[in-house]
Amino acid sequence: MTRKRKKKASKGISNLSQTILNILRKERNKTFNYKQIGAILEVNDASSRNQIIKTLQQLLAKKEIEEVERGKFKAIVTTEYHTGILDLTAKGAGYVISDDFEDDIYIASNNINKALNGDEVELYVYKRRKHGKVEGEITRIIKRAKTEYVGVIQLSKNYAFVVVDGNKMYKDIFVPINKVNGAEDGDKVLVSLEDWPDKADSPNGKVLKVLGKPGEHNTEIHAILADYGLPYEFPAEVEEFANNIDTSITEDEIKKRRDMRNVLTFTIDPKDAKDFDDALSFEVLENGNYEIGIHIADVSHYVQEGTILDDEAYERATSVYLVDRVVPMLPEILSNNACSLRPHEEKFTFSAVFELNNKAQVVNEWFGRTVTYSDARFAYEEAQAIIESKSNTIPAEVSLTGETYLAEQAVADAVLKMDELAKIMRSKRMSSGAISFDKVEVKFNLDEDSNPIGVFFKTSADANKLIEEFMLLANRKVSEFVGKQKPEKTFVYRVHDEPDESKLQALQNVVAKFGYKLNFKDSKSISSSLNGLLSDVVGKKEQNLVDTLAIRTMSKAEYTTHNIGHYGLAFDYYSHFTSPIRRYPDVMAHRLLQQYLDGGKSANEAIYEEKCKHSSSMEYLATKAERDSIKYMQIRFMQDHEDEEFVGVISGVTDWGIYVEIVDNKCEGMVRIRDIKDDYYEFDESQFAIIGRESKKMYQLGDEVIVKVKDTDLVKKHLDFNLIGKPNA
C-alpha cells in the first residue's frame, strides 16, 4: 500500500471513530451493539461491520467508551452538561437561558444543531469566552417547544416547502407532495414538523390545515390562533355534550342552596359583553351595616370533572380575546346562556357574601352555592353616570337603549354606596403598597367586515374600579379562608413575586432621562415610588412608554399551589374565583372551595400544581395571540393612512433601527437605520439613542419625531416608517 493510501485509510478510521463517538454521546444513556451502529450508518456489508467492531475495540482500549454488557457499548461522559431554553435571534444565532448560569449562554448558528426557538435543550459550555460572552454548543434537544408552525407553502412538481411566518425559524419545512393536504401554491397553512433526519438540511413536515390566502382577514386571525396552538372552534362532540346538559333551574337543586333571589342584584359589564359571569347584591342590614354579595356563575355545577367538556375547558384553560372576536373556553350554550347572569333570569351561582361597615371593614363572611335573580344589567358607562350625577338618571348618550331612562332608585343608591366603600378599600390597598397599573388599552371601531375605521383608548373609570375592588375582595377572602386552614390544604393561588432589582435599575436609567427618580430603599418605597411615577406620567407623551417599561419590570403573575402572596396587589393571599366562564383556574378554585366547605380532605397537590402550570402557560399563549391580533389590526388601520404624517414617540432603540409609537393611535412601527439618509447613524446603547456620525444628531428613547408610513405587511405583521425628522426642527 502506498504511503498516500495508508494515510487516507487511517483518516477514514479516525472519521469512523468520531462518528461512532458522536452516536454514543448523543444517546449517552443508551447502549448500542455493532449492528445498531451499522443500521444508523446505513451499512450492512461484512467489511463495514468488521470496521465498526474493530473501531469499538479501539475506543474501548482508549477508555472513551465502556462495554456495559457483552457486545453492548456506551459512551464514557466526563463533560458537564447543562439544560436550558433556547431563545433564537433573527440572525440565526441564539442564547440559552439556564438556571445554572447568571448570564445567558451564547450559541453560534453553527452550534445550534437543529434546535428551534423555545426548545428545552442540553448544552455543553466552553471554558473560553468569545467577545466577553459565555459560549456553548447544543448537544441534545430535550423537548421541542412546538411542533406546529404557520407559514406560506411554495409548491413544486414533486415536493413543497413551507416558509414559516416570523423571523425565528431559520429553515423552511420540506413537505412531500403526498402530504400537502390539498394546499395550493401561496396558501397560508398549518404544518406539523414530523422529523429532522441527521443528514437533511431541512425538517420534514406535513400540512395539517389550509388556513386560506395570506392577507385575508379570517386567514390571518386563524393563523394567529394556529401559531400558538389555540383552537377556533369546538369539536362537534363537545358542542353536542354541552347542548345536552340540563340547564333548568330545578326545585331539588334550589333546596341545596342559599336562596338569594329576593335580594337586590345587578350586573355591571362592558356594553358589548355577552357573558356576565359576576353580579353584585346589596342589602342594608338592621344594624346599619351592608351585606354585599359577589355572585359568580356556578360553572362547576355544569362542567363536571371527567367529562369531555371538562377536558376541553382544561386544555383551553382560558378564553382568548382577539380584536374582532372572542374564542371562548366554554361552548356558547354555557358561556352566553346558562352561566351568564342575564337580567330577569334565575341562575345558579357560587357566592362570597360579606357584611361590611361604613369603614369598608369585613365584619362577617359567608361562602357557598346560591340561587340568584338579576334585577338589572348596566354598562360601565351607565353606572358611571350614576356615580358622577349622584342620581338615577341614565342619559341617552350612555344608555344601552339609546334613550334617557330612570334606573330604580334602590339600584342607584346601592351603586353610590358601593362606590364609596370601593374607594375606601382601594385607598387602603394603595397605602399597603399595591401598585396601580391603569395602562391605556387600545381598542378599534370595526365595520361589519371587521375593517378598522377608528381607534379609541379604554381607560378605567370609577364604575370599573368599583367592580374591580369587589372582585378583588372575593378573590382575596376566598384564598384567605382556605389558606389559613390547619392543616394546610391544597389550593390554586394567583401569586406575584417582587420585581427584579436589575430590571428596576434599568427602568430608573430610562425614566431619569425624563426627570423621574425611583426609591429602592425597601419594598414599600419601591411600590410607592412606582405609583408616583405612574401617576406623574399620566397625559404626558412618554406615558405609554413608561407604563410599558414599568410593567416589564414586574415579575409575571402565575398560578401555583405554593402561596407567596401577590406583590402588585399587596395581598398575602390571592386567588382567581370570579371568572370561571373564561378561566379554568377559577373553576378549580370553586371545586376546591366546595370540597373544603363540605369538610373534605386536602386535594392532591402534585396534580393541582401540574394543572396550575398548564393554566399559566395557556394564559401566556393567549396573551401573545391577543397582542398579535392588535398588532395585525394596527397595521390594517395604518394601510389607509399611508399619505399622512404622524407625531410619534421613540419607544425602542436597537442597532438596526428605532421603534416609534404614534401618539394619536398607539400604533408602533420601525424606522430602519439604513432608511435614514441624512447621515450615517450608529447605535449608542448607553444613551438609548442612535447618533449621526457627521452631524452628531441624536434620536433618543422618548424623543418626539414625525414619521410617515413606508410599508405595511399584514402577512409578516411588519409596520415600517420613514423618518421625517423632529417637530419644529
What general form does the structure show?
globular
- The number of E-state strands comes to 35
Q: Strand content of the residues, in percent?
A: 25-35%
Give the proportion of residues in helices: 25-40%
Number of helices, where a helix is a run of at least 4 consecutive DSSP H or I residues: 17
Strand order of the largest sheet: 13-20-19-16-15-14-21
Radius of gyration: 30 Å
In this structure, how is the largest beta sheet organized?
A: 7 strands, mixed
Oligomeric state as shown: single chain
What number is the mean pLDDT? 91
Helix-and-strand structural type: alpha+beta
Task: Please give a structural write-up.
The chain is 32% helix and 28% strand. The chain is built from 17 helices and 35 strands. The strands form ten sheets. The protein has a seven-stranded mixed beta sheet. A five-stranded mixed barrel has the order 3-4-5-7-6. It has a five-stranded antiparallel beta sheet with strand order 10-9-8-11-12. β6 (120-130) and β7 (133-143) form a beta hairpin. It is globular, with a radius of gyration of 30 Å. Mean pLDDT is 91; it is low at 1-14.
